[in-house]
Amino acid sequence: MKYKPSLLIIGNSNVGKSSITRLLLPNPRKFKGKAGKQPGSTLMIKSIEFPQMPYKIVDLPGFGYMKSPSRRREEHLKKQLIIHIEKHHSEYFLGLVVLNITRIEDELIKYHIQNTTTIPLTIELIQFLREYGLPLLVILNKIDKVSVFDRKRIISSMINTIYDYGIHLNQVDEEKNKDQSLVPFLEFSALKKINLDILKRKINEHLQFGRS
Ligand SMILES: Nc1nc2c(ncn2[C@@H]2O[C@H](COP(=O)(O)OP(=O)(O)OP(=O)(O)O)[C@@H](O)[C@H]2O)c(=O)[nH]1
Ligand SMILES: [Mg+2]
Question: Which region, left, alpha or beta, applies to residue 142 given φ > 0 means left and ψ of -120 to 50 means alpha?
């Protein structure tokens, strides 16, 4: 069997991971959309693979798993996630960190303003994945739900907050080559397929040139 690298898709529940996965598949009708996990306390990690597709897709729940009612389950999932990344990080050629743009301000307010001792979960996740040298692309999904005005405000407050943690978010393609502190982001809508062409191009570039 020929080795295929994997694309990691990570983010909280309901941000649109399965919707994005579906857009990347050659045959979306065969994909039921719940491949990434299963109810219960064990993180079910199943990769999606098609013969026509040059890579596999792994859809993982992020830190701060929203639907989880219990703290213990939350901690358990987080541990599982860390173990998975520790073990398998080298199999991934790119990680898509998917955020729901309509939830970003809530997250920033909740973790940054009300409790400055806690790092926002998304930032923690980005830092964690970057420690393994995994190239990342932050997908700001559901931009069809916000006005251009709101979108600009949300993105600039996110850039400013994340900057305080040493991560420089940059519009995709504007990142200066090889500057390791830069993390590209892409405004996206899985529903309206906004910037799907750019996403596909970025995935192919990473697939082709690999990890540096
Ligand atoms: N308006 C809008 N809705 C979207 C977009 N992307 C996904 N959705 C909707 O958001 C909901 C959640 O999408 P999913 O793709 O299932 O999200 P997920 O991240 O896979 O969720 P879990 O599997 O629960 O972790 C669905 O009702 C989608 O139709 C988008 O770009 N715009
Ligand atoms: Mg899903």
Answer: left
**How many angstroms is it from 200 CA to the middle of ligand 2?**
19
- Choose one of 8, 14, 17, 151 to mutate for the ligand 1 pocket test, by most ligand atoms within 8 angstroms of C-beta: 14
Please indicate whether residue 112, judged by its CB atom, sits closer than 6 Å to ligand 1: no
Q: Mark residue 14 as left, alpha or beta (left: phi above 0; alpha: psi -120 to 50; beta: remaining).
A: left
Mean pLDDT of 69-78: 76
Parallel, antiparallel, or unpaired: how do β-strands 168-171 and 182-187 relate?
parallel
The number of distinct structural domains making up the chain is: 1
- The CATH code of the domain that includes 81 is 3.40.50.300
- Summarize the confidence of residues 153-178 as an average pLDDT: 85
**pTM attached to this predicted model:** 0.90
The answer to whether the CB of 35 falls within 8 A of the CB of 49 is no
* Structure confidence at residue 68 as a pLDDT band (50, 70, 90): low
3-state secondary structure of 195: coil
The string of pLDDT tens digits covering residues 99-125 is 999 999 887 777 666 655 566 678 888
* For the CA of 61, the nearest atom of ligand 1: 25
Residue 1 located in a structural domain: no
For residue 92, the enclosing domain spans 6-209
Number of the ligand 1 atom closest to the C-alpha atom of 145: 1
Residue 99 resides in a domain: yes
